[in-house]
Amino acid sequence: MSSSAPNIENTNIKAASGVTLSDEQRTIVGSILDLFAGRPSLPKMRMWADDATFQDPITKAQGRKQFEPQWYGLKAAFSEIERLHHEVTSAGNPIEMDLKTRYVVKGVNKEQIVSSKINIFVDGATGKIKEVQDKWDGKLPDSSFKDVSDLRELASMWWWVRYVEGWAWWGWSFTWEMWWWQAFRNLNSVTVPHMIKVPKDDEEDRAMGNQ
Q1: Largest Cα span, the chain
Q2: How far is residue 44's CA from residue 25's CA, in Å, rounded to a whole number?
Q3: CA 178/CA 42 separation, integer angstroms
Q4: Contact 77, 191 (CB under 8 A)
Q5: Is the peptide bond before 40 cis (omega within 30 degrees of 0)?
Q6: Chain centroid to CA 7: how far?
Q7: In the 3-class helix/strand/coil scheme, how is 71-85 assigned residue by residue?
Q8: CA-CA distance, 44 to 29, in Å (whole number)?
């Protein structure tokens, strides 16, 4: 069975004065806007390189097994996702975009508005997305802390205490200026793939309502 082409829902791309996007860039930006709106699909995921990275203040997901669940997990985490504003400010590499989004956290019904600076890095040879950085208020945490890449580390009570504290802190204040935050980001990238289902093929993806 052949792979489906991505059905980009966000096609009305707003760009700053003097910024001109190619058709390929418009498709990429549209797909990223879809993802941030909680509208993932496998065809959109195939626009990413297998070793691509997604990072924001609460996760650093490296490779397909980590970044795909992050996008499929948005609908599980939030009852409402509303884009309030977007504007592409640079058509270079990275493509740069301002994004403002309203989220409502499921279960606790907490509303949070996040203003982001989005950087989209594209592989010039393949045209695939290599990295997306979601900088809340234009910032990402210092990446100097040790990565958590081995599930055996999850056996430590220390990691679980910090994991719970991290989500609680994020939910109440969206603040990440703490020394253990980088560890939490990497832990998040390891645990989310074990909690979020990613469809195995296009047929299952369509059955889940993603295509």
Answers
A1: 53
A2: 14
A3: 35
A4: no
A5: no
A6: 18
A7: HHCHHHHEEEEEEEE
A8: 11
Q: What is the CA angle 80-15-95, rounded to 5?
A: 85
88 vs 60: which has the higher pLDDT: 88
pLDDT tens digit sequence for 120-172: 999 999 999 999 999 988 888 654 333 444 444 444 444 444 444 444 544 54
Question: How long is the chain?
Answer: 211
Instruction: Tally Cβ neighbours within 10 Å of residue 17.
Output: 6
Cβ neighbors of 35 (< 8 A, separation 6 or more) are 44, 71, 74
Between 143 and 86, residue with greater pLDDT: 86
Is 70 in contact with 54 (CB distance < 8 Å)? yes
Of 48, 29, 2, the C-alpha closest to 198 is 48
pLDDT for position 132: 98
